[in-house]
Amino acid sequence: MSLPSAPSSTYRVQPSVVVSIFDHYLRRPERSERVIGALLGTEADGVVKINNSFPVPYLINPEIRLDQVHFKKMLELHRPAFPHEKVVGWYVTGVTVDGFVNAVHNENFVRMADNEANVVLTVDTKLEKGLEIAAYNSHATVVGGKQNFVEFRPVDIEVSSENADPSAADLLLRGSSTIPSHLANNLSDLETLLAEVRAYIESVKNGSAAPINDIGRSLLFTTTTINDDDFDKSYRNFVQDLLMVAYLASLTRAHLKLNDRQ
């Protein structure tokens, strides 16, 4: 029985890739509980960088079958813009490596990607415990000279951007407590204004200041109450719009690189 050694590579994924996965999940077909896609990037000097991704449709009838035509077409469109990138793995929404993941990997992605897709990235889209991303490296276990089963070993992965300035998506995904200086200044100014408004309201209530009708009407319109359902719907729409903007920005960047090579 032959067991491979533990992986020694370092794994990094771009924030835009995670945002694209969430966008794919939000736009999934109605009856689909999970989404699947390819991960593309580079591997050099022990560092695997996941820079791009694209969705891959699939059907369960009764076995899991990925759309190989779609996969090949997307790969052909990707290569002219990013000639140095290859398929390094694939992603799936969810938190566990189960029979679904095993079937997709062994019966689909390994064959479609010529055995190069060794990384499996799982992304929890429920966000009940914050952002949960896990990565696994697949290893074939050989018994008696024949492959017996595939083992998925957890590996450390970090969400990191190569840009000097952290993007909004980067800060959002990291849950970073570091706020850019200009945003911190704006928040400080807002706190000052809110303190002035509160002081004015208290002075009107205790009779030390005369009420001004125009200010009162403005505060009434500004502080209109909103129920929980409306707020939840508004927040979800905002997040979906943010994901779409990030996806379109990534798509635009790819087209620009493609045009530069023509």
Tell me about this structure.
The strands form two sheets. Strands 9-8-7-6-2-3-1-10 form an eight-stranded mixed beta sheet. It is elongated, with a radius of gyration of 24 Å. Helix content is 43%, strand content 26%. It has 262 residues and is α/β, with parallel strands linked by helices. It starts with 9 loop residues before the first strand and ends with a helix. It contains seven helices and ten strands. Helix 1 (15-26) packs across helix 7.
Short synopsis of the structure:
With 262 residues, this protein is an alpha/beta fold. The protein contains 7 helices and 10 strands. The protein has helices at residues 15-26, 68-78, 99-112, 168-174, 181-205, 213-222, 228-260; strands spanning 10-13, 36-44, 47-55, 58-60, 64-66, 86-93, 119-124, 132-143, 146-155, 157-159.
Lay out the secondary structure.
Elements: E1 10-13, H1 15-26, E2 36-44, E3 47-55, E4 58-60, E5 64-66, H2 68-78, E6 86-93, H3 99-112, E7 119-124, E8 132-143, E9 146-155, E10 157-159, H4 168-174, H5 181-205, H6 213-222, H7 228-260
Parallel strand pairs: 1-3, 1-10, 6-7
Antiparallel strand pairs: 2-3, 2-6, 4-5, 7-8, 8-9
Helix pairs in contact: 1-7
